[in-house]
Design a protein that fits this description.
By secondary structure, the protein is α+β, with helices and mostly antiparallel strands. The chain is 39% helix and 18% strand.
């Protein structure tokens, strides 16, 4: 091989290698080019390996040119690899790289929703007074939500509860409009004396405003015994408010109408701006309801109530719009 020929080879290897590296646009390609030129059987490596068969003069001349070129290519490859994310010869990409000297990130804890807080407190107060917590389905039948509660089809009282019906309509399924169906469900299976509370979500198909949502929490209460009276109900609710608000709040009981109680009441409490806020619907269980669950009204009597947990929570935490509870707005929830 003449000197000029050998220099030509180096020229062309150099041109090819640099051309390819210049065009390479990812790490894998650079890796391939590395193998092609300076890998174990790369073009340049082969020449370097053949040096030992050459004369001393040739070896000197070719060797130094080949080595210089190898260095040049190696450097270019290193730069390219860095560009595509290899660091310091290890196989880790940028994304995997961890700065162990960086200060730790604060782990943020979730927040308990104010309604959950109040629900917990309310149930523990009732439990302390001998009530048991039970639950019922959110998708209810027309039978339990209405008929068994003395609200047959076409009864005008159905208008009190605008209803989300589940299609197809003929199955009579709906989103429960109140927790009262659980009075029936429970009394069908349990004999008095009994004391239960049933917390849960209820749904109403109506326009919403700052004190009405289409979805809210109720807590049903039910107590049946031989002599359970209105006086017992009043005492229970007074005690309950005292324990929950830890201050004397003003409360009033006025007549109200619900087809499954007789007489029926509504309970209001006075809010901070001196306005009466309706928080409970209640009454003495209607004799027909007792008959519906095969209890003898001449032997058993009791009261039932349905408490609006959202409104109680608003009162306790001074929240002025019921829609905030289900808004999903984290700025709201982070305050609690
Ligand atoms: N279920 C009634 C309502 O949602 C409230 C209620 C419960 C009234 C129990 C009387 C007895 O409006």
């Amino acid at each position: 091989m003449s000197e000029n020929q050998s220099l030509d080879i180096f020229q062309s290897i150099r041109k090819d290698a640099f051309g390819a590296l210049e065009e390479a646009s990812d790490f894998e390609t650079v890796h391939k080019i590395e193998a092609e030129y300076i890998g174990k059987s790369g073009r340049l490596t082969k020449i370097l390996k053949s040096l030992k068969e050459m004369s001393l003069a040739e070896r000197k001349e070719m060797g130094s040119t080949a080595n210089a070129l190898k260095k040049e290519i190696e450097e270019k490859i290193k730069l390219k690899k860095e560009e595509f994310g290899e660091r310091g010869g290890s196989n880790h990409r940028d994304a995997d790289w961890i700065d162990i000297t960086a200060p730790g990130k604060k782990i943020s804890r979730g927040h308990i929703h104010p309604i959950s807080r109040v629900l917990k407190e309310v149930t523990s107060i009732f439990e302390s007074m001998g009530f048991e917590v039970v639950e019922g389905p959110e998708v209810e039948t027309e039978h339990y939500n209405f008929d068994a509660l003395n609200i047959p089809k076409e009864h005008p009282a159905r208008d009190l509860w605008d209803t989300f019906w589940i299609k197809p309509l003929k199955n009579g399924l709906l989103l429960r409009t109140h927790t009262s169906p659980n009075q029936i469900r429970y009394m069908e299976k349990h004999q008095p004396p009994l004391r239960i509370i049933v917390p849960g979500q209820v749904f109403r198909y109506e326009a919403s405003d700052s004190s009405h949502g289409i979805q809210f929490y109720q807590l049903e209460g039910l107590m049946v015994d031989k002599t359970t009276s209105v006086a017992n109900f009043k005492a229970l609710i007074e005690q309950f408010f005292k324990k929950l608000f830890k201050e004397n709040i003003q409360m009033r009981i006025r007549p109200g109408y619900f087809p499954f109680v007789e007489p029926g009441f509504e309970v209001d409490i006075k809010d901070r701006s001196d306005k009466w806020l309706e928080v409970i619907g209640a009454g003495m269980i209607h004799p027909q309801i007792l008959k519906n669950v095969k209890l003898d009204p001449s032997q058993w009597q009791g009261f039932a109530f349905g408490m609006g947990l959202d409104r109680i929570t608003m009162m306790k935490y001074k929240i002025d719009d019921i829609r905030l509870f289900h808004s999903g707005d984290l700025r709201f929830i982070r305050q609690f």
